[in-house]
Amino acid sequence: MDNTQRFTGRAEDYDRYRQRYPAEEVLTRLRAWCGLTPSWLVADIGAGTGMVAEVFLANANRVLAVEPNPDMRDHMRSFFSATPQLEVIAATAEATTLPDASVDLVAAGRAFHWFDPDRALAEFRRILKPTGWVTLVAIDRDRDSTDPAFRDQIDGYEQLLTDHGTDYTSVVRSGYRIYDNMKGYFDGEFHHIQLPGTRALDWPNFRGHTMSLSVTPQPGHPGFETFEQALRLYFDTYAEAGILTLPTTCWISAGRFRAQ
Question: What stretches of 62-150 show up as alpha helix (H) in DSSP?
Fold first, then answer.
């Protein structure tokens, strides 16, 4: 599947049910690590529905939101229709259409694992000012927790997506590993932190979150009904008093390229 089309038909679920980024935590780190100020021009690459843009708009930054998927762009434009600080651009991470040395900060959220990393990082280097920074932020369920309270639950969800997902094992399962090992992509100053957490979801929110994933069958798919039945069984197995608690990880990285 063309990665730029993976979330077609999922923008509403994505924006409504995906976990938001911890804005103050991200901004505090970037102010300390990079000297982030409201005057910086930020390019949000693979902007999706605008969740990373939301963080920087809260800091009064002007944001160029680069997103290749039309559904995601339309949703973002509608949501931020009264926000002149945000400009939505139809382009990819590997070819942003932005001018050379034009932005202070390149940001990417839960999209970086869909990019061609070498080509995207070359593009980031091209559009950044010589003193610019790259920040990569992701937040998602913790697939590797060793807490015995969660281990069976985590393994069960991974198996559910492996059994019923469209291409989970071959494409997605290992994708988030990239956020654990970002240092190798930068030859200058680098900062990184991983923050553990939890997320409590009732059935509608858990179902919505799962339907926002690019690998789950959508209504009309021949495997959808079987998948939804298995998803409900999973929820009923691991939820307590109608709430499923998911362990989560938030990755925040910031790096620079050496001057060439």
Answer: 70-79, 117-127
